Amino acid sequence: MKSKRHLLLIIICFMMIVPKIASAQYRSFILGIKAAPSISWMSSNQEDYNSEGAKLGFAWGVTSEFYFAKNYALATGLQFLYTGGKLSYPEIKEGEEVTLTRDYRIRYLEIPAVLKLKTNEIGEFKYFGQIGLGFGVRMNSKGEDEYRLNGQTILVDYTDIDSDTKLFRSSMIIGAGVEYPFDNNTSIVLGVNFNNGFSNALKGKNSVNIYNEHRAKTNFIELSLGVMF
């Protein structure tokens, strides 16, 4: 009889503890997909190199989150970036010095590695911030050139310029957003990310001043829409 009382006491304690353990559990791995329109531009601190405005870009790919605590994760994935911008700088064309304006279209395959910090549910939503790094490999690049020579405007349509762009890109990523879980395993994620390139995207020397390297960084702000499973 005494042993039965002990067994009953153990069962009651177990039934009280299990819900608390279950509520403390969290999914350690989440996989998802994303699509993100962006505004991209190029910036340069090189003498006589000027940014000539922004252009539309795009990113898409798969994302994954590895949770080491309930609200803290390492977020990574694999995404294709379509970015670029416009630069103007002096160049030699047909033996004459001109101001060349080049429209860059560069495509990268990027692997981000960011620390994601998320709140508990506030109402029906969870909010998050993230910061980390991006590591990209150039897949291809094209450029459209425009300049004036002998009183005429000359436009050269997009051509392959892989020889003028560097293979690797590194960047800092800062972002924030909101997550709406509509069942236990699926949620919609909306976020804004600033991807600030800190490596030079160009290579080669300037034909007017051979002591000047081509130098510019690619940056973009994206509106990211994702589904996590």
Largest sheet: 8 strands, antiparallel, barrel
Give the H and E element order: HEEEEEEEEEE
Number of domains: 1
Strand fraction equals: over 45%
C-alpha Rg (nearest Å): 26 Å
Tell the overall outline. elongated
Average pLDDT level: 90
Tell me what the CATH architecture is. Answer: Beta Barrel
**Could you give the order of strands across the largest sheet?**
1-3-4-5-6-8-9-10
CATH topology: Porin
Discrete helix count: 1
Percent helix range: 10-25%
Number of strands: 10
Supply the helix-strand structural class: mainly beta
Task: Measure the end-to-end span.
Answer: 50 Å
CATH level 1 name: Mainly Beta
Low-confidence blocks of residues:
13-24
Would you kindly provide a written description of the structure presented here, covering whatever features stand out?
By secondary structure, the protein is mostly beta strands. The chain has one domain (27-228): Porin (Beta Barrel). The chain contains one helix and ten strands; from the N terminus they run αββββββββββ. The chain has one helix spanning 2-24, and strands at residues 29-43, 50-51, 55-69, 72-93, 96-118, 126-149, 152-160, 168-181, 187-197, 217-228. It is elongated, with a radius of gyration of 26 Å.
Offer a concise description of the structure:
The chain has 229 residues and is mostly beta strands.
